[in-house]
Amino acid sequence: MNVFYKSYCRVYQFIFKCSIPVLPYRKPEILDDQDKIGVKLNELNINRVLIVTDKGIVKVGLLDYLLNCLKEKSIETYVYDGTVPNPTSDNVEEARNLYLENNCGAIIALGGGSPIDLAKAVGARIVKPNKSLYKMKGLFKVCKKLPPLFVIPTTAGTGSETTVTSVITDSNTHHKYLINDFSLIPHYAVLDYKVTLGLPPHITSTTGMDALTHAIEAFIGNTRTNETKKMSMEATKLIVSSLKTCYSDPTNAEARTNMLYASHYAGIAFTKAYVGYVHAIAHTLGGKYGVAHGLANSVILPVMLEAYGEKIYKKLAVLSRYSGLANEKDSDEIASKNFINWIKEANKEMNIPSVIEQVKAEDIDEMVETALKEGNPLYPVPVLMGKEEFKRIYLSIMKE
Ligand SMILES: [Zn+2]
Fold first, then answer.
1. Interior CA angle at 378 toward 366 and 85, to 5°?
2. Which of 100, 117, 292, 308 is the most exposed place for a label (fewest CB within 10 A)?
3. Does residue 335 register a pLDDT over 90?
4. Domains in the chain, ordered, with CATH?
5. Which residues contact 203 (CB under 8 A, 6 or more apart)?
6. In a 10 Å sphere around its CB, with 0-12 CB exposed, 13-18 middle and 19+ buried, how is residue 204 labelled?
7. Residue 20 above 90 pLDDT?
8. Cα separation of 95 and 81, whole Å?
9. What is the pLDDT of residues 111-126, one digit of tens each?
């Protein structure tokens, strides 16, 4: 990468960093059990709600407890379970109609990233009845307070319950687009471990590693603030202490709770401080081969941290010591390497591969281009990289 482009990237990121304190970030209020939702709704004088979820969740019975809790508080529920894995604009309109036909006053999302994305978009369409979803694409096109939005994440990884983003696929054009607006940040995050007890082991492990990637990328980047540093440190410590336990002992309530909080804190950290190249590369693997986001991140994370090299020793050492993987006497280099080794070992213990099987040599150039477009100049990474460095990363996660 040439010097001029490097300076351009850094100036771009600096301007972004300066804008953080003046932007209207908000944190959701945390509720620790689904039975608190009804209490809140009673306080808000709302007695009819739309629940946005998907068929898989309903089928395994994850919705039952929530329905009972709301019934006890005399709240009528209308369930939209048509959410597909990449939620569509048709999904949004169907759910919105259900909300309007039944005079609902609040939205509850129960699920992984998809129902949460959908619920945010439904909220946006409810307060903006004359603006099509497509016209809300991009930055700050909603700018209006959503109906009370409660989010119950069923995986501990995406941190969607803290973020400004909703990803929707247009039903006609199949084009996927992002809606980013501060009003999409949910009002309540319900971190109830009970909905995560039945997660399959490979989802527990890879979504947990996604959360770790959020925490680390936000921490080693240049846009971090004192608050995001603290959030990343807490998230990392919880993940180091609890992720492997969730994998080996899936019904451990304490470990499951810790992972939900870790994912939440990491979400707050990256919403402000952004992610980095691990995500840029993971998104290309998702786009090209449909590789799950968490799996892609788990594989790329240790490789990218090693590629950043000594520039990140000091920062990684802080996370390593804070999580008990090194002590004060260890040098930054040792502490940082202990941490990367912990990630590699944890991946191995949780049966996460060290390569992505689908990667083909002939696709690499195209993916490098796409990943560079996403990463530069936007991501405030600790070391700026270009084509050659990216190519090496793809080669090292390719099966020999
Ligand atoms: Zn992620």
1. 65
2. 100
3. yes
4. 3-21+199-396 (1.20.1090.10), 33-190 (3.40.50.1970)
5. 155, 294
6. buried
7. no
8. 9
9. 999 999 999 999 999 9
Cβ distance 154 to 110 under 8 Å? yes
Gap from CA of 295 to ligand 1 centroid (Å): 10
Q: In 3-state terms, what secondary structure has residue 138?
A: strand
Q: Which amino acid is at 136?
A: M
pLDDT at 11: 85
Tell me how far CA of residue 266 lies from CA of 341, 383, 396, in angstroms.
Answer: 21, 21, 27
Ligand 1 mean position, distance from CA 293 (Å): 7
User: Closest by alpha carbon to 142, among 163, 165, 124?
Assistant: 124
Q: What is the DSSP string of 295-360?
A: HHHHHHHHHHHHHHGGGGHHHHHHHHHHTTSS-TTS-HHHHHHHHHHHHHHHHHHTT--SSBTT--
Q: How many angstroms is it from 266 CA to the middle of ligand 1?
A: 10
* Both structure tokens of 285: 């693997």
Amino acid at 83: T
Beta bridge mates, 153: 111
Distance from the CA of 294 to the center of ligand 1, in angstroms? 7
CB atoms within 10 A of CB 306: 15
pLDDT score at 18: 83
Structure tokens at 169: 């696929």
pLDDT value at 10 more than 90: no
| Centroid of ligand 1 to alpha carbon of 365 (angstroms) | 23
CA of 115 to the centre of ligand 1 (A): 16
C-alpha 290 to ligand 1 mean position (Å): 15
* C-alpha of residue 77 to centroid of ligand 1, in Å: 31
Residue 90 structure tokens: 């048709």
Reply yes or no on whether the pLDDT at 80 is more than 90: yes
Phi-psi region of 167 (alpha: psi -120 to 50; beta: other; left: phi over 0): beta
Segment 293-316 mean pLDDT: 97
Q: Would you state the pLDDT for residue 7? A: 86
Determine the straight-line distance between the first and last CA of the chain, rounded to whole angstroms.
28
DSSP structural state of residue 77 = E
Record the tokens describing residue 243, joined without a space.
């992720």
Q: Which helix (H) or strand (E) holds 152?
A: strand 149-153
